[in-house]
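[agent] plan:
  1. take the single chain provided in the ticket
  2. run structure prediction with default settings
  3. attach C-alpha cells to the ticket
  4. add a short note for the reviewer (M.T.)
[agent] executing step 1
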Amino acid sequence: MTDGTMLRDTYARPEAPARTPRAIEYDLFARNTGALQQAWARRREDFAGLAAALHANSRLWSVLAADVAEPGNALPAHLRAQIFYLCEFTLAHSARVLEGATGIDVLVDINTAIMRGLRGGGGSA
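[agent] step 2 finished; step 3 output follows
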C-alpha cells in the first residue's frame, strides 16, 4: 500500500471519528513498520514486497523531511534538524537493506521511537 493510499484511506473513512494529526502520523508509522516487518520475514520469497515496503517507508520519511524543511514549520529547529537527519539516514539505510548489506532492525527501531514520541513521550508505542 502506498503512502498516498494510506493517507486517502485514513482521511476518507466517514465512520471514523475525527483524529488528530499526531494520531494519523502514528497510524502511518505503525502501518509502515508492520509492513516492513512482514516484508522482511518474507524477503526470500518476495523481494519485491520488501522493496515496496522500504519504498513506502522512505516516502513517509521524505514527506516528513519536506514538511520540517518548510519555513513555517512550528517545530523547534533542533527537532526539525533531527527529523531531517533521520530521513537521510533512513533513505541510506534502506538502500543498504536492498543491497543485502544489512537488515531492517534499525528502521523499525527509529519508527518505533517516533511512534512513542507521537504517543506522548516516553511511553510504549
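[agent] step 4 note for reviewer: Helices lie at 3-11, 21-41, 47-69, 77-99, 105-118.
[agent] ticket updated
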